[in-house]
Amino acid sequence: MSTDSASTLTTSLIHGNPAKQQVQAHIFSAFAAIAWYNAIELVILCFVSFKRRHGCYFWSLLVASASIIPHCLGYVLLFFPTGVSVYICVTLIMFSWCGMVTGQSMVLWSRLYLVLQNTKVLRRVLWMIVVDAVLFHIPAIVLLYGAVSTPYGNFAQGYNIFERIELVGFCIQELIISGIYVWETVKLLRLRPQGRRHGILQQLLIINIFILILSLIVVVTEYVGYYAVEVLFKSVAYSIKLKLEYAILGELVAIARGSYRFEDVQSSSREINSFPSS
């Protein structure tokens, strides 16, 4: 590892006058602590909330939740003068980013069938997640490792541009999946204008709209100029979105038991323990 590589990436995280640097450092530390706390809680909830620990929904939740921990760790090791190789930091950041972002999309997809019975649409959404993972993750990994190896070359400039494209691309992907969920939930609300199921569907609708708003905020923070704040705010935002999934879990079980015959509900709902939503 060259000293130039580490210093270039570190100065890209924090810049400006000393007062601004100190403020960013405090916010950076606070976001890292919040994200780690949420991630540890999420991992514990994964093992507590499921009767049987298998299925797409369980593994997506577990991988996305656990990935937050190394993602924050990579930035902390890079941000503060720990002496850890920049290649280790970049490896922690990039591969955990894959698990965190694509894992979140898989979480959204794996519960989409509860409000959408069109298998063609479900299959197309899954293919969209797979294709986007290949199109966005692989070039970003290559460009960042290239930027580390040659910090003053074209790789660094290419990564800065592609990082924004990648973030917007994944945001659009989550907007599409959540948008389908919201649309189908609204249709169900029209079919059930009153009763307990109506209230449950309203709660699901509000939670998914809030998830949509968080996705948009992540993109907006990319253009604010406080890069040190933005990189860890993404982790906090994803941890909040995953915690909202546990608020949805109890409602999904209620819908599954009330709207369908329970024996017809797919395994990911049957594997969830009964517990009050957050």
TrEMBL record:
Domain DUF7703, chain residue ranges per copy: 20-259
Superkingdom of origin organism: Eukaryota
UniProt entry keywords in alphabetical sequence: Membrane, Transmembrane, Transmembrane helix
Any Pfam family: DUF7703
Residues that span the membrane, as ranges: 27-50, 57-78, 84-113, 125-147, 167-183, 204-229
Name this protein carries in UniProt: DUF7703 domain-containing protein
